[in-house]
Amino acid sequence: MNEHEAQLSITVLGTTTCTPEKGANTASFVVDGRVAVDTGWYFTDRLLACGINPLDIEAVVFTHCHHDHIMGLPQILFYSGIQGEKRPKRPLRIYGPAGEIRRVVDDAQRFLQFDRYPELRFEIEVVELRGGAELEICGLRVRTCSARHSVPGLCYRFENAAGASVVFSGDTAFNPDLIGLARGAGLLVHEASYGAKSVREDVRWGHSGAPDAAEVARQAGVGRLAVVHCAQAELGAALEAAKAVFPASFAPGDGEEIKTG
Ligand SMILES: [Zn+2]
């Protein structure tokens, strides 16, 4: 295995919060070119712009089912459905919080009127997950913990055979369980909805500030922290606040590809 294969690649499709901004789409990511983490606005456009064929996406993993994280699901279902014979002969696997994800996938198919256009149908496998799950997705070892958000949500850790690892917080308030999940990971991708503010106990909305994200990174002993899900206007201050707690913090740009060990 060479060094390139030993690393995980994370393509940043978007970095911002609920609605897109000029030059910044809502936060979603692709691991190793085939596992999507959430589907933000313009999901398939962003895949194409980042040089990823939407048909190469084998699995979509949802942190939770708020709009800015699921908006692109109908796009990839339609994109795949309309390909007919060109579509890969494997199901699209969709993972997400138990009690939430199945309804969203059903609703996306209804929105696309699959009953009127049965030729668009293809095999979709929905897998409901809870915190503490351990499974394999596309050859990657995956573990979850529960998020602390206003709806059921999950944080995910992906690890390849060489031990390269990346952890996604999804939307969560400061989360002690995430510290355990992220222990020693190469990269933590953490939300910072509240910018430079620390909101350690946001039980109402369930979001973090950059200092909270950095504290998780520091306590977990990760290699680097990518600060995401932060409004563009607040990003500069948020990054400085994160660096004050955890110096190896950075703010990835839309379209960036990050390699991690
Ligand atoms: Zn949310």
Report on this structure.
This protein has 8 helices and 14 strands. The chain is an alpha/beta fold and 261 residues long. The strands form 2 sheets. The chain has a 7-stranded mixed β-sheet. Strands 7-8-9-10-11-12-13 form a 7-stranded mixed β-sheet. α6 (176-181) links the parallel β10 (165-168) and β11. The longest helix has 14 residues, at 232-245. It is globular. It binds zinc ion (ZN). Zinc ion is lined by residues 64, 66, 149, 171.
Brief sketch in words of this structure:
The chain has 261 residues and is of the alpha/beta class. The protein is built from 8 helices and 14 strands.
What letter string, H or E per element, gives the SSE order?
HEEEHEHHEHEEEEEHEHEHEE
Which structural class do the helices and strands define? alpha/beta
Share of residues in strands: 25-35%
Mean pLDDT: 95
Number of helices: 8
Features:
seven-stranded mixed sheet; 261 residues; alpha/beta; binds zinc ion
Write the layout of secondary structure elements.
Blueprint: H1 3-6, E1 8-14, E2 28-31, E3 35-37, H2 43-49, E4 59-61, H3 67-70, H4 73-81, E5 92-97, H5 101-111, E6 124-129, E7 134-137, E8 140-146, E9 154-159, E10 165-168, H6 176-181, E11 187-191, H7 210-220, E12 224-228, H8 232-245, E13 249-250, E14 257-260
Parallel strand pairs: 3-4, 4-5, 5-6, 10-11, 11-12, 12-13
Antiparallel strand pairs: 1-2, 1-14, 2-3, 7-8, 8-9, 9-10
Helix pairs in contact: 7-8
Bound molecules: zinc ion (ZN).
